[in-house]
Design a protein that fits this description.
Length: about 80
């Protein structure tokens, strides 16, 4: 990261595991306030669900395109 001159911002909860983090030159840690992690879990779940929907649509699109292009030899096989 240092060679690429990139900086990162990482949000972490206030777990005791994160208290002894070493000093990092290109990574800034921002600690979430107490009891805020539970509020963010619903946002995390929405992100995961949206990713799953996006992935499934892409997979179905790929299979349908393969069928249309006659790349499948039988109906039982997944292209």
């Amino acid at each position: 990261m240092k060679a690429q001159k990139r900086n990162f911002l990482m949000f972490v909860d206030n777990s005791t595991v994160h208290n002894n983090m070493p000093e990092l030159s290109h990574i800034k840690l921002v600690y979430l306030p107490v009891n805020k992690a539970s509020n963010l879990q619903s946002m995390d779940q929405d992100i995961v669900n949206n990713f799953k929907i996006y992935y499934r649509k892409g997979a179905v699109h790929h299979v349908l395109k393969s069928i249309e292009d006659n790349q499948c030899s039988s109906g039982d096989e997944i292209c």
